[in-house]
Amino acid sequence: QDMSARGSSSQLPKPFDPEPVAKYGTLDVTFDYDSQEQKLLVTVTAVTDIPTYSRTGGSSWQVHLVLLPIKKQRAKTSIQRGPCPVFTETFKFNHVESEMIGNYAVRFRLYSVRRMKKERIVGEKIFYLTKLNLQGKMSVPVILEPSYSLSGCDSQMSMSEVSCSESTSSCQSLVHGSAPEILIGLLYNATTGRLSAEVIKGSHFKNLAANRPPNTYVKLTLLNSMGQEMSKCKTSIRRGQPNPVYKETFVFQVALFQLSDVTLILSVYNKRSMKRKEMIGWISLGLNSSGEDELNHWTEMKESKGQQVCRWHTLLES
């Protein structure tokens, strides 16, 4: 369509349109659901259609799986080499109720694994379990799409919409889950030594002591390698909003040689009165990251050469 809009004479006839050049990997996956035991077995057999070395910079691969929306059950394959890696590994997810099957999904991510344990997301796909055959096994190709975490915030938001186009109503619950989450944008400028953390928005923030919507703010604390406080700041308060939008950016001065030795803690509080507050949850990024997603976010920020990297993170309970 773009070509015809420019009046190009090289447009191919419709039936012979070539496949898109950009491929992000295709997983051979088998699902086996047991409704009596409420367990789901997922077998990752192999990956094909992996991008070239020039695009990924890697020749070793690993697949990460997480059951949405709770994100508590995770798994990863072994690391395999070559252009068509074979895994044939089976993972079990428990407590998947058959009557609630439409509320679940499995997110697949293909990682390029490089030296010094560096990882880079090649592609990802959210597979909705509404597609499952509840009787017996089902083998399907899971075609991966570009991961939102490779670029800025705008593409992250549109990626969420693309992934959820089949069911807009369940989009929020699947992409963000019912657990409190926060969208953070990180950017580091090695020349100036400026670490920018943008608190963009929150999701499913709760008032733990009452049914009314919470009044929330986010506190950011930067610690050195010894756990000593280097700097702290906080957002303004968003009143009566379970899904608040902050869009506030905070800049910390961190020299390049310090970047691997600092920890950034983000704590979300509900301010109940002048003197009373309660913590809704927290995450940490950097040296003492609170989880794999947080560590990956920090790593991608360091590798992104001055481009902002935005990611959703599930808050940990206080």
Task: Please explain how this structure is put together.
The chain is mostly beta strands and 318 residues long. It has five helices and 17 strands. It has two domains: 26-146, C2 domain (Immunoglobulin-like, Sandwich); 181-314, Immunoglobulin-like, CATH 2.60.40. Strand 3 and strand 4 (74-76) form a beta hairpin. The N and C termini lie far apart (52 Å). Mean pLDDT is 80; it is low at 1-22 and 149-177.
Q: Treating each run of at least 4 consecutive H or I residues as one helix, how many helices?
A: 5
Using the alpha-carbon principal axes, give the shape: flat
CATH architecture title of the largest domain? Sandwich
Q: Please state the structural category.
A: mainly beta
As a whole number of angstroms, the C-alpha radius of gyration is: 21 Å
Strand content: 35-45%
- pLDDT under 50 segments (min length 5)? 1-22, 149-177
CATH topology of the largest domain: Immunoglobulin-like
Spell out the CATH superfamily of the largest domain.
Answer: C2 domain
Number of domains: 2
Give the N-to-C terminal Cα separation. Answer: 52 Å
Count of beta strands:
17
Fraction of helical residues: 10-25%
Average residue-wise pLDDT: 80
How would you spell out the order of helices and strands? HEEHEEEEEEEHHEEEEEEEHE
CATH class of the largest domain: Mainly Beta
Biggest β-sheet strands, sense, barrel:
5 strands, antiparallel
Family: Belongs to the synaptotagmin family.
InterPro entries: C2_dom, C2_domain_sf, SYT14/14L/16
GO molecular function: identical protein binding; phospholipid binding
Region (Disordered): 1-20
